[in-house]
Amino acid sequence: ILVSVADVEVVREGHQSEVLLSVAEEFPADLCFTLVFRGRRGNLDLVAETPSEAQAWIRGVRKLIQNAESMDDKERVDQWIWDWFQKADKNKDGRMNFKEVRTLLKMMNVDMNEEYALHLFTLADKSKSGCLENEEFVQFYKILTERQDMRQVFHDYSQDGQTLTLAELKDFLRQEQQEGERSREHAQELIDRYEPSETAKKQGAMSIDGFQMYLVSPEGAILDPQRLTLNQDMSRPLSHYFICSSHNTYLMEDQLRGQSSQEAYIQALKRGCRCVEVDCWDGPNGEPVVYHGHTFTSKILFRDVVTTLGEYAFKASEFPVILSLENHCSVEQQKVMAQLLDTILGDMLLREPLDGLVPQELPSPHDLKGKILLKAKKIGGLEESETLTDEATDEACNFLSPQKSKFSRELSDLVVYCKSVHFHSFEYSRLHSKCYEMSSFSESKARKLAKDTGTEFVHHNSRQLSRVYPSGMRTDSSNYNPQELWNVGCQIVALNVQTAGLEMDLNDGLFSQNGCCGYVLKPDFMRNDDSFDPERPQDRDGLLFVISGQQLPKVNQKEGSIVDPLVRVEIYGVSQDQAKQETSYIYNNGFNPLWNETLNFIIHVPELALVRFVVEDYDKTSRNDFMGQFTVPFTCIQPGYRHIHLLSKDGMAIPLSTLFVNVKISEVTTEV
């Protein structure tokens, strides 16, 4: 098995996977370890022959991971070049002849005529040996990857064509990057940070190398790095945030025969999910189990799910986790559930209102840091006057079983701010519902409400939580588009996070901001009493892109196959903002395609818009092949010349694979 260290996230020691736990009697813990991969790739469980061999592997892989994570940008590029050298050096003699270089160019998505390739090869072959050794290959790569697009931008502002003076760099930052007053101060910071030449630094200038290093750094990325940190007000009521949410979290695959796994909870929580779901059913020996009822999905113990939740709930984010409970258990096993939640989660489990008072509005994520909230049906309310009889009768209709449901008082008492109730109407909710009561909607029901009564839905969601879940017909664990539910302020838009694709790209894009903490503050017009109708927005902005690409990934791994890339820019937001435009395709060039095309958009509600950049391999006879994508909230876009660092279908970074764009955003004052 060939494994890239860059793909390994962590090494777990002992029986820390369901597979290794199942063979624990056969293989002692000191022989076992697990490689956990980034993205959706399954874990690799390994068993050594001796404890010392296991420790050697564990220490070695951990050291490699540490080294990989501590590399700077230059070291990453050097490693990437070395990886290519190793792949192309077919006879493993540590050198590369011209035939091997030609093969390498095909592997790297470069279609170059033989005469020009030989010219570059000869330039790099300083020793005149007819082969490229390590340093000569690095030189060959540098010649190959010289960026004419960035050099042109550099020359537009450099009077001598060699360096940018402090004043010239300041002009570039002010005019192109739209930085305004802080451009002079920032220009000096960029020179100090990215300029490799000490001579240029002393002169207060930036060379082309420093300029390129700046533009490919996080500061030169399209996503504003300041928006990546925790920067939003976390003291508003829970209902004022979009909350990253998972549906049927226990499933690794489809809804009918898929595996139920604790690992699925770990993956969801690591992705920043702050609402996870548990379907509970009576199990043998008085132990509740978790699985998708009336299907062939495997079963896991509720006890193990709660243990996993307790261990991983706050590793990615300190803000509260909502445990959405689909309770199909008898009263007896509900009592067991309550006991397990209480004993395993301890102080993490919220058991009563924070100040002991009945709330008039929900508490904030800040107030609930480190707390797990149970979402389930509740006997009565937080007000002492409510009774068991009224609530049990009212709530019975929300269960799958047509029989009147019975509730365990012990489990009910653990429900505080997320009491599940049946949705009657927005008018009923406005007159009778409490802020701690919340309803769940199927995607079709939520869509209909959004279309017919969008303004009321927005207002409802400013005070109460709403959860939306995929249709039961989605047995393949496919997803619905979450955007139209965010447009009406639904907070908990639950997706099958195990399924990659457009819908999860949008979800990952929205929650990439604010420190990836799983909470994103809704726009102010969705939090106050203003009447916002997603079908009739008011504000509008203009948007423009100019695009080139670098080192795009291969789709077909067959030797000699080279992509014909095109870029599509997709806007997701209110209905008037939904739009797509694409460039022409570039024939046989995935290495450095140059489009130089302009795409124009009008954005009416920028606060709700997501922009998705998709790169595809054009195919005139069949569907285009996906190559990479990146999704960013419109409000997090940095204007100017920016790089977009592409992600795979699985959401993983594709090394050195970027788009180079020029973004111009301007107010549009007249109706278009």
Mean pLDDT: 89
Shape: globular
Largest sheet: 9 strands, mixed
Level of helix content?
25-40%
Structural class: alpha+beta
What is the CATH superfamily of the largest domain?
Phosphatidylinositol (PI) phosphodiesterase
Q: Strand order of the main beta sheet, please?
A: 11-10-9-12-13-14-15-16-17
Domains, number = 5
What radius of gyration results from the CA coordinates?
28 Å
| CATH fold topology of the largest domain | TIM Barrel
Low-confidence stretches: 385-400
Number of helices: 22
Q: Beta-strand level of the residues, as a percent range?
A: 15-25%
Architecture of the largest domain, according to CATH? Alpha-Beta Barrel
β-strand number = 26
Quick one: CATH class of the largest domain? Alpha Beta
How far the N terminus sits from the C terminus, by CA atoms, comes to: 57 Å
GO cellular component, one term: endoplasmic reticulum
Binding site for substrate: 375, 377, 440, 467
Main location: cytoplasm
Binding site for Ca(2+) 5: 617-619
